[in-house]
Specification:
Shape: elongated
Structural class: alpha+beta
Oligomer: single chain
Distance between the termini: 112 Å
Number of helices: 9
Length: 393
Amino acid sequence: MNSTFIQRARGYVLIEVRGRRLEKLLNRLTEKRISVWDIRYTDGERAEMMIALKDFFRLRPVLKETGSRTRVRGRFGFPFWLAKMEKRKFFFAGLLCFFAGIYVLSSVVWQVRVEGNEKLPTEKILQAAGQAGIHQFQWKFRLKDPAELSRSLQRQLPEAAWIGVQIQGTHVVIKVVEAKIPDPVPLMSPRHLVASKNALITEVFAEKGRPMVKPNTYVRKGDILISGILGNETYSQTVVAKGTVKGIVWYKPTVEVPLTQQYKTYTGETKKRFYLVVGNRGLQLSGFGKVPYEQFESVPERKTLQWRNFVLPVGWINEKPLETRTEERQVDPKEARALGLERAGAEILTAAGKDSRVVSEKILHEKTENGKVYMEVLFEVEEPIAVEQPIVP
């Protein structure tokens, strides 16, 4: 049952002809130039054949003349497909609108992302990109060639050594390589380095200037550690003192630790919520109503439709509110003491800054009352104590 493209476009039918004068019927069809093909005899008085749709309506006189009858066994070609499509016009219209919507959504820039910038503000780059036509909800066909866009941004942002523009699906990525400009050397006036706290000196390193203290000596706040004056009373020179001085500083904080600790646990109960996301907007489709838990924690999981390198602005979010509850645990006084010392030491080191360490710790006084452990602790901390002090002429 082979058919040509023209026959499928015009339409044809498969018919079954019954009668005792089939040979005469075929001859009459040939005389009237009625196009039939794929003729097959099923028995002596029956035959199947293909006939063009336009010739099917010319069969009646020939059938009447030869005393034959016919029955349609199949319909093929574009006219019949069009008739089926007309019966399901709403389905095909919806399908057409769906593909048209996907095409429109994939033809719009949904996100502009900047990568590689550190000192150059992202807002400034996006502002320059907007002037070049790169912005959210821009039609992709209105964007210029990426190379031309890169040159345009380079002219507007001379602080960048190189700018590249890549169009990845519905996203535009602007990659920036910043020019390395050396930081200007600040102008410094002559200065001393003095002690910021009362301390016992443990280390002195004078990179520039004259050291005034030695290790294992006690200094008070404001004492000069490294002098910025070189020479004697007759011949002297002022410099910018530079160096590192460390000393042991004493802290005596009061620490209190409750004997009842609270922590969060999950009960295993959860509820599901589903959102359809288009661009930056979401539409909730399931899990309506208030979350039936007094305490809960939400865990969202977002997924986006993607085809090869094209990221479509359509996706969904699965959100799971997990029920939580607060548990209480009794702490042994010995454990509470260790927790308090650890917490107090961490706070002191944070305040002291980097290059500091706890040399020793000693509990001066401890008591337990009202469900808490109270301690007065002495910490010895080694930390940098040098601060700048300008030399006044």
